[in-house]
Amino acid sequence: MILLALVPTLGLAGLATAQALTVAETRSNLNDVETAVEDLLVLVELEIAVVDEVYWTEAKLTTEKFGIPTGFVTAAYGFDIDERLSEAQLRVDRLLATTGDSDLSQDFNTVRRADDTSLTSSPIAEFADNVLRPMVAASTTNAVQVAANIDGSADVVQATQILDKSNALRATGVELITSFFFVTAFGPGDNNEAVRELDNARTQYRAQSAQLTEIIEADSPAGEAWRELQTNPPTRSIIEDTDALLSGTSPEPVVVDGVLNPEGLGEIASSFIDAELSMEAHLSMLESVALEAEAGVQERRDAADRYAWLIGSIVGIITLITLTSAWVSTRSIVRPLSDLANAAEQLRAGDNSASVSVRGPEEVRTVAETLNEAVANLRRAEMQALALADGRLDDLDDDDVASGTLGSSLSTAVERLRVSLGEREEYRRRLAHEASHDGLTGVPNRSASMEHLEGALARAERIDSDVAVLFVDLDNFKQVNDLHGHAAGDRLLREVSRRLIRSCRDGDLVGRIGGDEFLVIAEPVADEQEARQLSERLLDAVSAPFDDVEGTTIPSASIGAALAGGRRKASDVVHDADLAVYEAKEAGRGRTAFCDDEMRSRLLAEADLESAIRQGLADDQFQLHFQPTFNLHTGELDGAEALLRWEREGVGQIRPERFIQFAERTDLISEIDSWVMCRALTHLASWADDDELKH
Fold first, then answer.
1. What's the pTM value of the predicted model, to 2 decimals?
2. More confident residue, 271 or 564
């Protein structure tokens, strides 16, 4: 009996062992990611330090070649080259020791002792490019690959990917700075290859910056570090100097025809300091991203530990229940013992619906009750776990929880998840509100307004009513921006939106669809008179004086109105209101115009006339007729008057008064004037060459 009762315990032990191995593998992978990130930071800092040593070595060679005393550099530019070079070398030595790679240290020291560094050739720089940079790239790739092998660790994978792209940005920054110093030192001159390398580095740096901006969450620690790097003054100074250099604004070169140029020396000295500080800023960015990756690793490690603890607790509870049942079974009669064995078998098979009849000796009844209670707790725990996994927090009853440590842990997890999901839902609602509302005034934006109008038209069709669409366009709003600034214009727009809302009826919608354009959707309206009354209220509200810090403004608006039933498209109705607002403005502004069939027909006719005039100019349908003028005193030919005629294709002769007045109200008159002037001058030139006309 005891051996049979132990069978479920062995099965659970095997399950616990498998889960423990999975947790151990996850922790091992997380540790590998953490180690790879730490190694990467050391190698990146080492590469930066080596590049720094190269810079200061070249600076020392420059001063020695041209006989510049180090004291003069210290007094003139505020830094000691020897001291900076010594600090860079000590930093390299310290970081080499940190790597623990004796072969790497030996190889670098061999390169450093090589006495063949010049202004145009540096074995140390070649060591950084050919040895350190591939090691950094391999370390970055390793961190990303290891993170990708961890199930459920998307945040860790993303952090390592950001780390990879941040390091690529830093490496590109090194290339950009190196090319910048070379072109700056010797001038763009004939250094076409160096200039191309500098331009390529700048282009790549911008592209990598754009990639980082896309993948980094703005409110994360990495996002904050990224903003600090983007606004870092030395880095911005290097980028701006590079842009100026590539745009043709070349600084004074350090060396001109083999002779030191003092002005160029001053400019490159400042750039040296900016370059050093910029690389430190890139390193700080990498450290911040690495910290975020390590935080993600730790969080995932804690989650694995919690999972292992939960499995262990469940296995421990079930094991305790099973052993208790086995012990009691030795003292019970055969039937209760058989019932307990069957229930244990069901439980081992994962069937939480198993139950035992409470009968037999007191000990057997106690075990049966305990087993039933444990099964009920496991069922509740399973239901809560499933509800947690599905995010169904409403299905969780705070009063119906499993007893003991497991129940307490699940209850705590439920509360934490409820709070987290509540915050996430609030964030989602806020995002949805921002996506459908204007950020300046808080009223619905164009897309939300059009969606509301579509619903209003559908409701109007069901109840056989009309919807009024009022297109409110502020008059002379540009003058407010020009006279008082855009901040004053923004305050006026917010005030206008509040006035419109206060003047509308309950249920009407006020939306902002453009710069100084608002849309009021009123439903239902009985007739045009009711819509006109609403429009007048809006005009009165908008035109009230607005007292602002910049002074008092008397705003005004023109309103185009359109009435529509339920069988029209929302875009067509708004188009009608838009046409009407132009009529209101042409009629003197500060008023309302309603779009009707007559207006639509007239506007369509004008649009057709405008298109025909443009086509006529292009197809030479216009003609110039010249009427001679004579001097009444002498009777001699005094000149000629050019008369414009239009033979419209498919229509015939069009009288001038039909198209000239229309053209004068549009920009077409300028095109017609140009056409007439060109043709008149052409005729005049031909007459000048005509001998018969000369006499």
1. 0.39
2. 564
